[in-house]
C-alpha cells in the first residue's frame, strides 16, 4: 500500500456492539500480533503471502450478535487514494460464513480519516456456535484492500470465542 499511497497506514481500529454501543479499541501496535509460520520438519518458514496477521479473542456471546460497527482510523500519504475498497471474508474451517464489501471511496493526500462500517452478522445454528467455541482459531478471515481495483494489502485474522487465550 505504501508504494501506491505514499506511506498511508492504519492507526486505530474500534469495534462497537450495536445497538448497545459498548466498544473497545485496538491500536496498530496491538493489531500486528504475528506473522504466521509454516513448519517443514525442523525448519520454520515465514509465509510470504501472510501479509499482516491479527489474533482476536472474544467471549461466546459475540457469536450471537447481529450487528457490530467497526471504526477504522487511517492516514493517507502524499498521494491521493481513488476507489479505496475492502473485501473481507470470514470462514469456519472450509465453510464461508459471510463476505463483506466496503467502499471507502476517495481519500485526499496527507489526511487522517475515520470510517465506520456496520457488519450484519448471519444467524448461526447452535451446533455451529458450539463447534466454533470448541475449536478456537479455526474461525479465520481474509481482508483484501484495493485501490483503483488493484490489491494493495492483505490481512489475515483468526478468532477464538472461548473467552480466553
Keywords:
5-stranded mixed beta sheet; mainly beta; elongated; 10% helix; 165 residues
The residue-averaged pLDDT reads 76
Number of helices: 3
Structural class: mainly beta
**SSE sequence, one letter per element:** HEEHEEEEEEEHEE
Low-confidence stretches: 1-10, 20-49
**Biggest sheet strand line-up:** 5-11-10-7-8
**Percent of residues in helices:** 10-25%
Tell the overall outline.
Answer: elongated
Q: Please summarize the sheet with the most strands.
A: 5 strands, mixed
Alpha-carbon distance between the two ends: 31 Å
Q: Strand fraction band?
A: over 45%
Number of strands: 11
Rg from alpha-carbon coordinates: 17 Å
Secondary structure blueprint with pairings:
Blueprint: H1 2-5, E1 9-18, E2 23-27, H2 28-31, E3 37-40, E4 43-46, E5 52-57, E6 67-75, E7 81-92, E8 95-107, E9 112-120, H3 126-134, E10 139-147, E11 150-160
Structural overview:
There is one protein chain. This protein is mainly beta. Helix content is 10%, strand content 56%. The strands form three sheets. It has a five-stranded mixed β-sheet. The longest helix has 9 residues. The N terminus is likely disordered.
Amino acid at each position: 500500500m505504501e508504494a501506491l499511497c505514499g506511506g498511508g497506514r492504519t492507526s486505530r481500529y474500534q469495534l462497537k456492539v450495536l445497538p448497545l454501543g459498548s466498544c473497545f479499541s485496538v491500536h496498530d501496535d496491538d493489531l500486528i500480533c504475528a506473522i504466521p509460520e509454516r513448519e517443514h520438519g525442523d525448519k520454520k518458514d515465514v509465509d510470504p503471502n501472510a501479509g499482516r496477521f491479527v489474533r482476536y479473542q472474544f467471549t461466546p456471546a459475540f457469536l450471537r450478535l447481529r450487528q457490530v460497527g467497526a471504526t477504522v482510523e487511517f492516514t493517507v500519504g502524499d498521494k491521493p487514494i481513488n476507489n479505496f475498497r475492502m473485501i473481507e471474508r470470514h470462514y469456519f474451517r472450509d465453510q464461508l460464513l459471510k463476505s463483506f464489501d466496503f467502499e471507502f471511496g476517495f481519500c485526499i493526500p496527507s489526511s487522517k480519516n475515520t470510517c465506520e462500517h456496520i457488519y450484519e452478522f448471519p444467524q448461526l445454528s447452535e451446533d455451529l456456535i458450539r463447534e466454533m467455541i470448541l475449536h478456537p482459531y479455526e474461525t479465520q478471515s481474509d481482508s483484501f484492500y484495493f485501490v483503483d481495483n488493484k490489491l494493495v494489502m492483505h490481512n489475515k485474522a483468526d478468532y477464538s470465542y472461548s473467552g480466553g487465550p
